[in-house]
């Protein structure tokens, strides 16, 4: 039986143009190679799963490539590129600072730096999770980082830049990686699904991208999980929400419809159904806050693009927002937000959410009475 390779490894970018959502980084690095403006120490920082180590490896491979392409990418065919792909390159060293964080580990690395590369132009040292180094290790590394030999380049990667001492930061060219946008993750998942001949629903891929919270590696792990979970090679919206235990946004539309219709019984029964399905009341109220926010955003054509959902879901938001006033949405959002803030301290959490729903259900009546009172006061004047 053939060994399964996870998508995060199988589709790991091999060149700058295939890196997802970090064009500001890849463009700068390519221009540095093009103009021969390479710093001797780089610091790649940002959240997990956004491509820091991947970009470090691509940079290491590219600057030692013997025949760069016209757009300054590694050719992938020369001896240097082949040795890199086969993990047999003597010019590229990777160190995991999480498990090699002592002074002795850094001194060993510093000793290696003294020797020039036997083949190729540069020796590249990639230190992952560099914030895990001890203070003594950082201090042992300072002099080498400040005045390395001309053939040595250091690429440091970290998820916690604030833990790195300022003297190290001042010696590095710092690159801040962004969380990857939902649309970029969804497009990449679509590309992989097509390559793997996996049937998919776009709404399911967008949901996976949302759940990944800007980390492409997390999105690929979830994608593999859903494909394994399904009976065939497919990724459907229903199977995705069931596997990830996510509350279907259809419930939020139904709850808001009940609130607008002042149907308190329907609203409370829907909340009871949600609880019986094993969902937490706090998750429900947080999701309801997000739903009210999206409805408010949909009120204005200029801001509707801020809702990162499929076109069919966007149509549902537009339909519901027509029957909901801005006053109702703002007041409901305020009530739901207060419920979210005080949820953890409540002794009866179910009643706490139900009370918030009761208040929201009475908002249309309150607005009507306020309007009548305003009209009466005008008539008296």
Outline of this structure?
This protein has three domains: 7-176, 3-Layer(aba) Sandwich (Rossmann fold), CATH 3.40.50.300; 184-244, Helicase, Ruva Protein, domain 3, CATH 1.10.8.60; 249-366, Zinc Finger, Delta Prime, domain 3 (Up-down Bundle). The chain has 18 helices and seven strands.
Structural write-up:
This protein has 381 residues and is an alpha/beta fold. It folds into three domains: 7-176, Rossmann fold; 184-244, Helicase, Ruva Protein, domain 3, CATH 1.10.8; 249-366, Up-down Bundle (Zinc Finger, Delta Prime, domain 3), CATH 1.20.272. The chain has 18 helices and seven strands. The strands form two sheets. A five-stranded parallel β-sheet has the order 2-3-4-1-5, covered by helices on one side. The longest helix is centred in the last third of the chain and has 18 residues, at 281-298. The model has no long low-confidence stretch (mean pLDDT 86).
């Amino acid at each position: 039986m053939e060994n399964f390779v996870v998508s995060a490894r199988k589709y790991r970018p091999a060149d700058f143009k295939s890196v997802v959502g970090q064009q500001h980084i890849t463009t700068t690095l390519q221009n540095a190679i093009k103009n021969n403006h390479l710093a001797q120490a780089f610091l790649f920082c940002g959240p997990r799963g956004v491509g820091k180590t991947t970009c470090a490896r691509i940079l290491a491979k590219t600057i030692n490539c013997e025949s760069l392409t016209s757009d300054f990418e590694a050719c992938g065919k020369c001896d240097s590129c082949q040795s890199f792909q086969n993990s047999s390159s003597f010019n590229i060293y990777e160190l995991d600072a999480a498990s090699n964080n002592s002074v002795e580990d850094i001194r060993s690395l510093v000793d290696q730096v003294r020797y020039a590369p036997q083949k190729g132009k540069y020796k590249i040292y990639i230190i992952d999770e560099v914030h895990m180094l001890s203070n003594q290790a950082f201090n042992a590394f300072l002099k080498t980082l400040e005045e390395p030999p001309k053939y040595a380049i250091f690429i440091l990667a970290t998820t916690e830049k604030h833990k790195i001492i300022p003297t190290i930061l001042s010696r590095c060219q710092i690159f801040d990686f962004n969380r990857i946008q939902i649309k970029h993750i969804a497009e990449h998942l679509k590309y992989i699904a097509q390559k793997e001949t996996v049937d998919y629903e776009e709404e399911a891929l967008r949901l996976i991208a949302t759940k990944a919270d800007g980390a492409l590696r997390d999105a690929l792990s979830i994608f593999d999980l859903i494909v394994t979970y399904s009976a065939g090679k497919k990724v459907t919206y229903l199977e995705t929400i069931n596997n990830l235990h996510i509350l279907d946004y259809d419930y939020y539309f139904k709850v808001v419809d009940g609130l607008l219709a002042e149907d308190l019984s329907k609203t409370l029964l829907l909340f009871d159904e949600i609880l019986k399905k094993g969902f937490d009341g706090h998750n429900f109220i947080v999701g309801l806050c997000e739903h009210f926010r999206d409805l408010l955003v949909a009120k204005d054509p200029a801001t509707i693009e801020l809702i990162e959902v499929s076109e069919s879901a966007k149509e549902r938001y537009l339909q519901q927002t027509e029957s909901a006033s801005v006053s109702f949405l703002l007041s409901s959002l305020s009530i739901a937000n207060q419920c979210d803030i005080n949820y953890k301290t409540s002794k009866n959490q179910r009643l706490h959410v139900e009370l918030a729903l009761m208040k929201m259900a009475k908002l249309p009546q309150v607005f009507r009475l306020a309007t009548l009172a305003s009209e009466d006061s005008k008539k008296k004047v």
